[in-house]
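Milestone 3.1: sequence recovery, worked example.
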């Protein structure tokens, strides 16, 4: 697992990442993610790669009995804990490697979420380990949902630049297309990730013991339309840079 690399990458970002939550892409992402999340009242939810706890806090506010955020970056976890100290909700945060294939020591959960975790796998083995780690947290019938870079994003189509993120293609392999993503902040924040091929995802989720994997396309809700206008989102929907997934144990 690339524990050192990912921790260094996001330790450097730390609490500054909260500014990215104002970029346009986040509006359809948040609305679509919460719609897929559904009713979590009384549920036990673990949020892998929680970052600064953005979704962990919302999950707790939506009535989860327990909301635990896990991230490999101590700086990100400290940012999440700082937010919890400022406005206590009862969310918990732990530094741990979400790529560990056995996370069962963290407990049993009804739902596991992951915003931008699986796309950081460097090969099929790491991707399968990430999926196995999520599966180890779930009982029968549990769900694993998340957000990732879209496997079918086309560099020949509209670019995501107007929506706050620039994709620069690095290299293409049988595993996927490696890219550098730059968030349009001041100063800009860049990180490396991969547009993993759909068939690679399908094999990894199946090998980890999930009975099904489905892709859920982004939708643009009323808030995003009202804030930016209908025409603004046409290219985003024509060639979406991100997508949701749902897998069942």
């Amino acid at each position: 697992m690339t524990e050192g690399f990912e921790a260094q990458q996001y330790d450097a970002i730390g609490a500054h990442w909260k500014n990215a939550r104002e970029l346009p892409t986040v509006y359809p992402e948040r609305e679509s993610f919460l719609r897929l999340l559904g009713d979590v009242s009384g549920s036990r939810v673990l949020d892998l790669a929680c970052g600064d706890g953005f979704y962990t806090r919302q999950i707790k506010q939506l009535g989860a009995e327990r909301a635990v955020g896990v991230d490999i970056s101590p700086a990100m976890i400290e940012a999440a804990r700082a937010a919890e100290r400022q406005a206590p909700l009862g969310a918990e945060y732990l530094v741990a490697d979400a790529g560990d294939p056995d996370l069962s020591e963290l407990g049993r959960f009804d739902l596991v979420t992951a915003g931008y975790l699986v796309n950081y796998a460097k090969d099929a083995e790491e991707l399968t380990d990430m999926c196995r780690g999520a599966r180890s947290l779930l009982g029968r019938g549990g769900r694993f949902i998340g957000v990732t870079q879209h496997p079918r994003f086309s560099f020949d189509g509209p670019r995501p630049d107007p929506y706050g993120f620039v994709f620069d293609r690095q290299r293409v392999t049988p595993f996927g297309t490696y890219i550098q993503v730059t968030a349009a902040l001041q100063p800009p924040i860049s990180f490396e990730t991969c547009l993993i091929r759909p068939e690679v995802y399908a094999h990894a989720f199946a090998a980890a013991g999930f009975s099904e994997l489905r892709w859920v396309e982004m939708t643009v809700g009323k808030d995003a339309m009202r804030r930016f206008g209908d025409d603004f989102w046409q290219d985003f929907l024509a060639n979406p840079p991100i997508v949701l997934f749902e897998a069942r144990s």
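Confidence is low (pLDDT under 50) at residues 1-5. Helices lie at 3-11, 26-37, 54-61, 74-86, 124-135, 198-207, 222-228, 234-238.
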